[in-house]
Design brief:
By secondary structure, this protein is of the alpha/beta class. Helix content is 40%, strand content 23%. The chain has a 9-stranded mixed sheet with strand order 3-2-1-4-5-6-10-8-11, with helices on both faces. A two-stranded parallel sheet has the order 7-9. Helix 1 crosses helix 6, helix 3 crosses helix 4 and helix 4 runs parallel beside helix 5.
């Protein structure tokens, strides 16, 4: 099938995604920051290309993405209180991946963002949260304005519960939670459906099976 590069390839969503990609017949390549992750990533069925997003430049991204057919960007600085990582990972990591994709002729690009990041932040929000929202919104805007074959997924609050296999998917949906495993399954579904190109959706767990939810969203 295809070779899929997963940026943020040792993250929790990525580690749920790798086995799904392999089961579907793809080759999954994790872009992750440390050689120490190789065995764990291999156990999920993926190969590793070492890429430290926080320190990598465009040339590093281009080397890591050479020969792939599609990119899934799942990297995030996480809730660690570090404002700088929101810029270097969530924003600059995405921008570098987008530019590298364009330079290498890799068209398909799926980005995992976050629910509601185009909305104004609450007045009592922390500076870290504001930086996170700004980074995600900026990265999404850049991708929408690119010539890549993009899909943007904006999941709600992420949990590690067992997948339900059912979601609520739409351009805007009420806040809620969604399992990381269901996000991974949603990524695989949109990857296989070119009708999802140029679409941006929010997603939370709901009552509609994932495949049906995607079909309804593109109809």
């Amino acid at each position: 099938m295809s070779t899929i590069a997963v940026v943020g390839g040792h993250g929790k969503i990525a580690m749920k995604l790798h086995p799904l990609l392999v089961e579907a017949g793809h080759t999954s390549i994790a872009l992750a920051r440390s050689e120490a992750y190789r065995e764990e990533i291999a156990s999920a069925g993926a190969g590793l290309r070492v890429l430290d997003i926080e320190r990598a430049g465009l040339a590093d991204f281009e080397r890591a993405l050479e020969g792939v057919d599609a990119i899934v960007f799942t990297a995030g600085g996480g809730p660690d209180g570090n404002i700088e990582r929101k810029r270097t990972v969530d924003l600059e990591g995405s921008l570098n991946a987008q530019l590298a994709a364009a330079n290498l002729g890799i068209s398909r690009f799926i980005q995992v963002s976050a629910h509601g990041v185009d909305n104004p932040v609450a007045p009592d929000s922390t500076a870290v949260w504001e930086a996170y929202v700004d980074a995600k919104a900026h990265a999404d805007r850049s991708l929408r304005e690119s010539e890549l074959a993009w899909t943007i997924l904006r999941p709600g609050h992420l949990t590690d519960e067992n997948p339900s296999g059912a979601i609520l998917l739409g351009e805007t949906v009420d806040p809620g939670s969604i399992t990381r495993a269901d996000v991974a399954a949603l990524i695989l579904e949109v990857l296989h459906d070119d009708r999802t190109i140029g679409r941006q959706w929010e997603a939370v767990n709901g009552s509609v099976p994932i495949a049906q939810a995607v079909t309804a969203a593109v109809s």
